[in-house]
Amino acid sequence: MNGNGNAAGANALSVEGLKVHFGGGKRSLFGRQPVVHAVDGLSFRIQAGKTFGLVGESGSGKTTTALAIMRLVPVTAGRMTLGGRVISDLEGEALRAARRHFQMVFQDPYSSLDPRKRAADIVREPLDLMDIGTPQKRRRRVLELFTQVGLSAAQQSLFPHQFSGGQRQRIGLARALSTTPDLIVCDEPVSALDVAIQAQILNLMARLQRQLGLTYLFISHDLGVVQNICDNIAVMYLGRIVEQAGRTRLFTHPLHPYTRALLAAVPSVHGRGGGRRTRLVGDPPSPINPPPGCRFAGRCPLAEEICRSQSPPLRSVADGHQVACHLVT
After folding, report:
1. HEC string of the chain?
2. Of 203, 214, 208, 210, whose CA–CA distance to 148 is shortest?
3. Contacts of 306 by beta carbon, 8 Å cutoff, 6+ apart
4. pLDDT given for residue 8 in this prediction
5. What average pLDDT does range 187-206 have in this prediction?
6. What is the per-residue pLDDT across 31-67, written as a single tens digit (0 to 9) for each?
7. Rounded to an integer, what distance in angstroms lies between the CA atom of residue 221 and that of residue 242?
8. Which of 63, 97, 153, 273 is 20 to 30 Å from 253 at the Cα level?
9. Angle (nearest 5°) at CA 215 between 255 and 1
10. Is the CB of residue 244 less than 8 Å from the CB of residue 226?
């Protein structure tokens, strides 16, 4: 069992056929509102105590996926199960009660903390909102959390503007940990920090995971960052997963042209994986009107006619390695 009571190897989170579409409301004088296919059929699983990475360019649907799992945007279709609970169908009081089991660390440590509240109040807020423990137990829990994330007891009375960016993200992580969740969703948690501070926060997250058995969904556009913390990685493009594999295999044997292009752009992993490299040119097509075939075909120099007419399924090509590409055999 890990620190959150999940059996080792069990799935903490299962996502099946997740779709998040925006728009398409009632017809007006100007016609029906167009539909944005932000997330268009995602399926993946995260083992308890592991870190699962979602990577891709801006606009690929990573953050929308995170918000859908957190139930902060409406889910169009699909099923999400966390620790045996179906969270995709929850509403009202049932959803509010379940929120203690999934928490989020946001991208910007400057805007995600209430500037009018002291640090201790920010960390204690989820406990207050969900009525977890007595006031005395909440105070003890906050002190414990400050220690775990590397902050001092004296800093509890300070306001967010009195902390550095890295310290603010430590506060955000402490807040996410407060309810002992089954899953912590991390949306670009280090992208607003400089490189040295990024390493500190990533090392902290890894240490807490080992100590507490934490399960992370880690969202990033940076494969270099993902390489340092994730056990399994899914590469997203225009609302869909195009490749998914364990960390070592993805970085040494990338198969999808889009994954190869992303790797070629990262200095720390440049030259790995062998084979031909793909250089990214142009912009992704609009999510309002996705192309009928492979959504990467318009930017892929290897694309053939079948790529433009038929959407490739995500299929297994090796143990734990899946790819959506007609040209991979």
Report:
1. CCCCCCCCCCEEEEEEEEEEEEECCCCECCECCCEEEEEEEEEEEEECCCEEEEECCCCCCHHHHHHHHCCCCCCCEEEEEECCEECCCCCHHHHHHHHHHEEEECCCCCCCCCCCCCHHHHHHHHHHHCCCCCHHHHHHHHHHHHHHCCCCHHHHHCCHHHCCHHHHHHHHHHHHHCCCCCEEEEECCCCCCCHHHHHHHHHHHHHHHHHHCCCEEEEECCHHHHHHHCCEEEEEECCEEEEEEEHHHHHHCCCCHHHHHHHHCCHHHCCCCCCCCCCCCCCCCCCCCCCCCCCCHHHCCCCCHHHHHCCCCCEEEECCEEECCCCCC
2. 208
3. 293, 326
4. 52
5. 92
6. 667 899 999 999 999 999 999 999 998 889 999 999 9
7. 15
8. 63
9. 115
10. no
Phi/psi of residue 235, each to 5°? -100, 125
Provide the pLDDT for residue 108. Answer: 84
Q: How far apart are CA 205 and CA 321, in angstroms?
A: 26
Nearest to 164 by CA among 176, 155, 154, 177: 155
Q: Is it the case that residue 7 has pLDDT exceeding 60?
A: no
* Residues 115-166 pLDDT 10s: 999 999 999 999 999 999 999 999 999 999 999 999 999 999 999 999 999 9
% of the chain with per-residue pLDDT over 70: 90
Interatomic CA distance for residues 69 and 104, integer angstroms: 10
CA distance 67 to 274: 35
pLDDT mean across residues, the chain = 90
Classify the C-alpha dihedral 268-251-47-56 as positive or negative.
positive
